[in-house]
Design goal:
The complex is a heterotrimer of chains A (about 625), B (about 400) and C (about 250). With about 625 residues, chain A is mainly α. Chain A contains 25 helices and six strands. In chain A, a hairpin with a 2-residue loop joins strand 1 (about 135) and strand 2. A six-stranded mixed beta sheet of chain C has the order 6-7-8-3-9-10, sandwiched between helices. Classes of the chains: A mainly alpha (about 625), B alpha/beta (about 400), C alpha/beta (about 250).
Chain lengths: ~625, ~400, ~250
């Protein structure tokens, strides 16, 4: 490999960084001001590519292409404004992170809408008029359009930078990024500010997507493919920092280009194919950056965000009525295998629901009372599942022993990752957990000899008597009940109180002798350990396990379940997981456009129950209780 | 009182689970599960192909006097979900056979499920060799020509190129990995002095096309073996064209002649690549013309390869069901042993030895006609001609898989 | 022996001496006020004593043990209670649970996973609440309380580990004048009963001059005066620091 080849790859990296920059800049602005984790940002980017494609094809020529790109940015910006006004504005007062649920629903809806409008086939746009060819650099041909991309990103950075520094709107945005309440106090119309910021962020995403139209086809998988990278760039650069986003985009694109340039290296005892690292390079970069610089490269520590939501109520032990209802439900569930004579599928679905319940309850344990928003809880699910599967397949452990070992494998992972994660807070913690999950995923994906690579481990079926679905259901039920009661017990014990104390006021907690980081670390480990049980049960329920079990999608599923149920109640995750698992199963069966349907249902639930389903029910009963209490 | 919330959802679970549809006795139910949402480009035409076959069969009175009924489910694009959907189809819908799946890992998971629960499964599209070989089982058959077969079909062209320096580019998962492994093994056997100058394993759907194209060019290969498909392929081709990567180089490429992946390339189509694929507008065999006419009449659209696979999946199942009168899985397994099926690609057989269909594929060169990609100079390669002998595959399959 | 000794304490932020060679002592049972105009270094001094900041030079002793470099929670374990300028309680807990947490921590049972926390040390917590006059609010969520009441809860929490020293950063900030007096009167009674020493910063000169046993004054990071109320009131340097800015003591308290 020559030096000129390396330099040329560095130039390639710069052009790739441009696309990353646009989507990340928009995401960063939106998060900075509104604190919304906008998962639908990748969908806006994808829409950008599709719309730009259509405009370029319909209008044609240079006008269609270049004008189309500008028009696309405006259209996507308008869509962003619409989303903010119609949807997000209604739920700003919901508990933190709840808006994530709404944007997740949007991902589903937008993806199906795109499929409906543009069809399933990839759509490759025209080459850029005027920039269709290549220029010669270092004796190699660089597409002229890449050169244009290399220039446009820093140009946009400079424009944005001045807009933020010199205009009143920009100053307000920066002020809001630092302290939202202050802006409200200054008499600024917060609604207008938020709408404008969301529109601007969406516009940047649309522009980024539109600019790709000359490089890659419009594709329905783009939304989720880019959103992960975009978050990584934002976090590495530092939330709210546009320059940071540019710097991070360049670093990540360059690291990948370097991996590709190095290719296969023979180390004598083994040969390493560096191109395979592109699978996970950005997450390794993010983990390193966050461990060294907890607020990203150019980010500043953010003032504590005082939540605008109604704070949580003190937890109360179960009332006799709740206990009785719990017992009734348990008896009903115990009787389920008898009813299953007529519909055996009930047990299969029931087992899946119970696994989801354990998964969500363990996530809620750290997310709710611990205040640690893990975006990578799938890691512990996967570690448990792979731990159990491999111990059975490779070490020949009996099924029950392997199942018992699952939480221990997850525990080891959670102890390791948690140690780093609890040193951060807020969205940085969330992203570090995501990075760890992705690293675990990549490890499992790449280590073919041990984990079976992308195929995973197959043929891990439960031993008798659990090979019957009734018995397996009861096993899962026992695990779920034990997990729920145990975690509940912990939450009522001093440990759980200490976790909440550390969340409510770290300063006060430290001032009464509580080692907050240690408590949160142990909480993280407990949650990971319990999650491992769900993973182990999953592996044996399906008879196989593959890297999807550790994917971002599963982590997001967990977040959705917890938020849907209500993060501020203890039964929230149980309700959320049950409803989501059953909903998914039912909806997937009903319609061709099941994703959109699922998205719409979630949107309805989001708007109807901004505190989650269980949260809404419990505040309703509290209100009723207060009323009748007053009358008595 | 919070527990009421849970009760509601429990009631929901029960209601959803208990709503068992009535079993109709005059139909034979087949459960089809696939990643319709995750892989729409292939599976949309696939579904159309299935529906066409179903219509043809049922308009002629069905099979054994009973109509075929297809119950289609999305597998959510992941194996865990797929296994649950498979269970649902078997236990709730009472299907007599399962068919479908696209990605290798999902195919393997469902095949394993089928083997465990003794359910007949026809894996229609997943290409991994493991489904019929290393992880093969009694209850699983597979229709589509495997990674091994398709690679073998391309070998004559690869060897004829007499290229010493090969560059390899492939999506970094089972399909790409095993295609490249097979390719390396085969070409080394034919040409021991061959050299692999670069191997680019790219994340599926997230190809960094400029850098990869450049790295291949920098390695100065004489020839390139490509396994990329879908959006990755389109990106790679455009970058490669602009950068002159394919100039004066032999390119051998898997699946690139399939309309699903070729059509998006349009005027960008890299002329001269040797590919496996489906030149739908140029195959003049009577079987194919009949299929093409019927398909275009029904949908006013041309078929993709997915249409062929979907159509033939249903035809295969109908043929198997017609051969056995019983509907249990073991009878189906017996019926499929050596089963002959008429397909738009001509007749083929399900081998008793490894449960693999011998349906072949078209191998030819990519060409550009009227701004659209097509195949030229192509021929049909029978799958039987590239499959290892019965004795060899017996060694590859686990004991008790037959 | 002094309860707290501060020896030549210094802290620099980017070349600015926030605290420069400050030394003072608190005797047992003493009610010591730390005052000074904005930017005098009060908060920095305070945060070094409570462990949130590490000093650049100098030493801080609790009894004869140096606490430099110790974390806040370790300093608390040495018998130092504290309240915050912006009152901090655990919003998701009831009032009594807030106090119970401090008691549980004091007893070293914070890692316990089994016994329900609400049943631990409830009696003792109720006693403490009674002492600050908040027994009636024991089972209300602490986030529902008025600000003045939150300050009282903080006091009960701070007393939970039987401290020998109480650090109070602006205990009356954000309170109405009547409430201020009541709170400080309460503190004074409690500390006299228990023989606790108190170091507090305060903006309100009324409060300082009427209640403090002794007052120390910081200006631009240096200790410029140390004495009782009368001495400080007449101290020329202090007058210069306050009136030099064109303010009276009253205005300076805003």
């Amino acid at each position: 490999m020559t030096l000129s080849a390396f330099l040329f790859q560095a130039i390639n990296g710069l052009s790739t960084a441009s696309g990353l920059f646009f989507i990340a800049a928009g995401l960063s602005l939106i998060f900075g001001v509104t604190r919304i984790v906008n998962i639908a940002h990748g969908s806006l980017y994808m829409l950008g590519t599709y719309i730009a494609y259509s405009l370029a094809m319909k209008i044609g020529g240079a006008v269609g292409f270049w004008g189309g790109i500008v028009l696309t940015a405006l259209i996507v910006g308008a869509i962003g404004a619409l989303i903010e006004v119609v949807l997000l504005r209604r739920i700003y007062r919901a508990p933190e992170l709840f808006q994530l649920l709404a944007t997740f629903a949007l991902v589903l809806v937008i993806n199906d809408a795109t499929l409906w409008l543009w069809g399933p086939e990839d759509l490759l746009g025209p080459r850029a008029p005027g920039l269709a060819g290549a220029v010669e650099i270092f004796g190699r041909r660089l597409p002229s359009y890449d050169l244009f991309l290399i220039v446009i990103a820093p140009a946009a950075l400079i424009v944005l930078h001045f807009a933020l520094a010199k205009t009143r709107f920009g100053r307000l945005m920066r002020a809001a990024t630092q302290d939202r309440e202050m802006v409200g106090a200054l008499g600024v119309n917060q609604a207008v500010l938020f709408t404008s910021v969301f529109a601007l962020g969406a516009m940047l995403a649309g522009l980024g997507g539109a600019l790709q139209v000359a490089r890659e086809p419009a594709n329905l998988a783009t939304d989720l493919a880019v959103i992960g990278d975009a978050f990584v760039v934002v976090v590495v650069g530092g939330m709210g920092s546009i320059s940071g986003a540019y710097l991070a985009a360049i670093i990540i694109a360059e690291v990948k280009a370097l991996c590709i340039a190095i290719g296969v290296v023979d180390l004598g005892f083994m040969s390493v194919n560096f191109s395979k690292f592109t699978l996970v390079a950005e997450f390794i970069v993010m983990a390193i950056v966050l461990i060294a610089r907890p607020y990203g490269l150019l980010g500043k520590p953010q003032g504590n965000v005082r939540s605008v939501a109604e704070p949580e109520n003190p937890i109360r032990p179960a009332t006799p009525m709740l206990k009785m209802l719990g017992a009734v439900i348990l008896v009903l569930l115990l009787a389920l295998p008898l009813m299953a004579q007529t519909s055996p599928y009930l047990l299969v679905l029931g087992t899946d629901v119970l696994i989801a319940v354990i998964f969500a309850t363990s996530l809620h344990f750290i997310m709710g009372p611990g205040g640690m928003h893990s975006f990578g809880h799938a890691a512990y699910f996967g570690l448990g599942a792979y731990g159990a599967a491999l111990l059975m397949k490779l070490a020949g452990l009996p099924m029950l022993a392997a199942l018992l070992a699952a939480p221990l494998v997850a525990l080891i992972g959670a102890l390791l990752f948690g140690w780093f994660a609890v040193r951060l807070s807020g969205v940085y913690l969330a992203m570090l957990t995501l990075a760890f999950a992705q690293i675990v995923w990549a490890l499992v994906f790449q280590w073919e000899g041990f984990t079976g690579g992308s195929n995973g481990v197959i043929g891990v079926w439960p031993a008798a008597p659990f090979d019957k679905s009734g018995a397996y259901f009861l096993l899962a039920l026992a695990c779920a009940v034990a997990a729920i009661l145990l975690l509940r017990r912990f939450l009522f014990a001093p440990f759980g109180y200490a976790m909440r104390a550390g969340r409510d006021s770290p300063l006060r907690a430290e001032a009464i002798g509580i080692d907050v980081k240690r408590i949160h670390w142990l909480g993280f480990a407990i949650a990971g350990c319990v999650c491992g049980i769900a993973g182990g049960l999953f592996a044996f329920a399906k008879g196989s396990i593959s890297p999807e079990a550790i994917s971002v999608t599963r982590s997001i599923d967990g977040l959705v379940m917890v938020l849907l149920g209500g993060i501020q109640t203890l039964v929230g995750p149980v309700v959320g997981a049950s409803v989501y698992a059953v909903l998914q199963d039912t909806v997937m069966r009903q319609t061709e456009y099941w994703r959109a349907l699922l998205g719409v249902i979630i949107l309805v639930l989001v708007l109807a129950f901004p505190q989650g389903i269980a949260g809404a029910l419990s505040s309703l009963t509290r209100k009723l209780g207060r009323k009748s209490g007053g009358a008595a | 009182m919070r527990a009421q919330a849970y009760l509601y959802s429990l009631a929901f679970v029960l209601a959803a689970g208990l709503s068992v549809p009535a079993f109709a006795q005059d139909t034979i139910k087949i459960g089809e599960l696939n990643s319709y949402k995750a892989q729409p480009a292939f599976l949309d035409p696939y579904k159309k192909g299935m529906d066409l076959a179903l219509e043809e069969i049922n308009s002629k009175g069905g099979v054994n006097g009973k109509k075929l009924e297809l119950i289609i489910r999305d597998d959510g694009g992941n194996p865990g979900e797929a296994v649950r959907v498979a269970e649902e189809l078997v236990t709730r819908e009472g299907v007599v056979a399962l068919s479908g799946t696209f990605l290798s890992n999902i195919g393997l998971a469902v095949a394993n499920f089928a083997g465990q629960k003794k359910v007949f499964f026809l894996a229609s599209e997943p290409l991994t060799d493991k489904i019929t070989w290393a992880e093969g089982n009694k209850y699983t058959y597979r229709l589509r020509a495997t990674t091994y077969m398709q690679t073998a079909m391309l070998m004559p062209a690869a060897i004829a190129a007499h290229a010493k320096r090969w560059a390899l580019v492939y999506p970094n998962y089972e399909y790409g990995q095993s295609a490249v492994a097979t390719f390396k093994e085969m070409i080394k056997k034919a040409q021991p002095d061959v050299e692999f100058v670069t191997e680019q394993a790219t994340p599926l759907g997230k190809l960094d096309a400029g850098a990869v194209a450049q790295a291949i060019d920098d390695a100065k290969p004489d020839a390139i073996f490509n396994v990329l498909f879908g959006g990755d392929l389109a990106k790679f081709v455009r970058e490669g064209n602009t950068r002159g990567v394919f100039k004066n180089r032999t390119v051998v490429s898997l699946l690139s002649g399939e309309p699903e992946y070729l059509d998006p390339l349009g005027a960008e189509t890299p002329v001269g690549w040797t590919v496996t694929g489906y030149p739908w507008d140029k195959i003049k065999t009577p079987e194919h013309v009949a299929f093409l006419t019927a398909y275009q009449k029904k949908y006013s659209d041309y078929p993709r390869l997915g249409s062929i696979v979907g159509y033939t999946t249903i035809k295969s199942l109908a043929a198997g069901l017609a051969k056995t009168k019983a509907l249990d899985a073991d009878s189906m397994v017996e019926a499929f042993k050596g089963l002959y099926v008429q397909s738009p690609f001509g007749p083929f057989q399900y081998r008793a030895s490894d449960h693999q269909a011998t349906m072949g594929a078209y191998v030819g060169k990519l060409a550009l006609e009227k701004g659209k990609g097509t195949m030229d100079d192509f021929k049909y390669v029978d799958g039987a001609s590239v499959l290892p002998s019965d004795a060899e595959v017996a060694k590859l399959r686990p004991a008790g898989a037959n | 022996m002094s309860v707290l000794s501060v020896r030549s304490l210094s802290k620099t932020f980017g070349g600015v001496h926030a605290v420069n060679e400050v030394s003072f002592d608190i005797g047992k049972g003493e009610f010591l006020a730390l005052i000074g105009p904005n930017g005098a270094g009060k908060s920095t001094t305070f945060n070094m004593i409570n462990g949130q900041l590490a000093p650049d030079a100098g030493d801080i002793l609790i009894g004869d043990k140096s606490i430099c470099g110790l974390a806040p929670r370790d300093i608390w374990r040495l018998g130092v209670g504290r309240t915050f300028q912006v009152a901090a309680t655990f919003g998701s807990m009831t009032v009594v649970e807030n106090v119970q947490m401090a008691l549980i921590s004091h007893a070293g049972r914070i890692l316990s996973l089994w016994r329900p926390a609400a049943s631990l040390y409830r009696e003792r917590a109720l006693e403490l609440l009674a002492q600050v006059g908040m027994a009636d609010a024991a089972d209300r969520p602490s986030r529902e309380l008025a600000y003045g009441d939150v300050k009282r809860i903080e006091l009960a929490i701070a007393l939970a580990n039987d401290p020998q020293l109480l650090l109070m950063d602006e205990p009356t900030a954000g309170m109405a004048p009547r409430e201020r007096n009541d709170l400080i009167k309460l503190v004074k009674t409690l500390v006299i009963e228990r023989g606790i020493s108190v170091l507090f910063t305060e903006h309100s000169m009324d409060v300082v001059f009427s209640y403090a046993d002794r007052i120390i004054v910081l200006a631009r990071g240096r200790l410029i005066a140390d004495g009782d109320a009368a001495a400080i009131r007449d101290n020329a340097k202090v007058r210069e620091v306050y009136f030099g800015t064109g303010k009276t003591f009253q205005e300076a308290s805003s």
